[in-house]
Write a structure and sequence with these properties.
This protein is mostly helical. The protein is built from 15 helices and two strands.
Amino acid sequence: MKKTLTVNLGGTVFSIDDDAYRLLDNYLINLKHHFRKEAGADEIVDDIERRISELFTERLATGLKVITITEVEDVIRRMGNPDEMDGNESASYGEKAEAAPHGQTIHRRLFRNPDDKILGGVVSGISAYFNWDVTLLRLLLLVILVCGYGTLVPVYIICWLLIPEARTAAEKLSMRGEAITMENIGKTVTDGFERMANGVNDYVQSGKPRTFIQKFCDSVVKVVGLFLKALLFAFAIICSPLLLVFCVVFVALLIAAVAVAVGGGAALFSLFPMMDIVLPASPLAAIVMYIAGILLVSIPLASLVWAIGCWVFNWHPMPTGLKWTLLILWVISVAVFANCYHLQGGHFPEWLHLAQLSC
C-alpha cells in the first residue's frame, strides 16, 4: 500500500503516489538550480512544468488513474536530466538537439509566430510550419495582393483570428518541429529575453548569413509592414464608433422584431408610419434580414478590432470558445440574410446563379 498525493502541475491537478512525487519534486528542484543563473529562470521552469503536465495528461488518457514512478522516469528521460548536463562539461547549454529523444515523435503544429511578425504572425507561423523562408513567402503574398487578388485580405484576417499564437516555449518548439526537451525549452525562453533586449528583427536575422538581395527584401518587407500597421491602426479608430452604432441599431431591431412577433406588422406601422419605406411586404422577415446583415458585418469588424487591440494595446486574446461561437453565429447570419433577402424579392448577382447552375 502506497500513499497517494494530489499535486497541481502546470495548472492541472494529478494524483501521484509518494515515490513518484519525491522523484518529481527532486527533478524540479534540480531544474531550478540548473537554470538559476539564466534570464527568465522562473519562466523556463514553468514551461517545463506545463510540458510535464501535458505528458502526464496523455498517460491518463490511456486509462491510468495515478501517476507512478514509471511515468515520472519516462518524463525525465524524454525531457532530459539537468544532472547529466551539469556533469557533461563538453556540452554547452543552448545547443538544440537535432533529433528527438528516444521514443518521442515530433509533431509540427500550426501557430502564429509572435517572435517574427509584421501584423499577426500568420505568415511567419506558416513559414515555420513548412520550414520555408519567411521573407520570400511575404514577398510572394505581397505580389499576389498587389496584382488584385483581394481575397487574400479576408483569408489573412480569418487565419489571424482562428490560428492560435505560440505563447509557451513548448508551443514555439512544436511550431518549428523541434524536440520539446528541457534544454530546448530553456534556450527558447532565454532567446525570448534576448529578443526583448536587442529587438525582434535583429535577433531573428542574427546568426543567419543574408545576401544583399535578402537584406533588400527584408527592408522592403519591413517598410510595407510599417505601412500596413498604420493602416490597421487607422482602421481600428474608424471602426470603433461604427461598431457602437451597429450595437444601437441591433438593439432597436431586436425590439422591433419582438413588437412585430407579438402585435403584428400593423402595430409597428401604427407607431412608425414611415416604416413601410424600410419594411416592405413582410416586416418580420425584413427585420430579421437587417439583424443578420448587421451581424454579418459587425462580427468580422469586432474580431479585427479586438485583434488589433491585442497587437497594439496588449489586450488579452479572444478566448477560443468565443472565437468559434462568433464564427458559427456569422455563418448562420450569412444563411439567414441570404434567405430573407430572397424572400423580400431581392436578386442575387448573376455570377452566383451561374455558380449554382455549374454545381
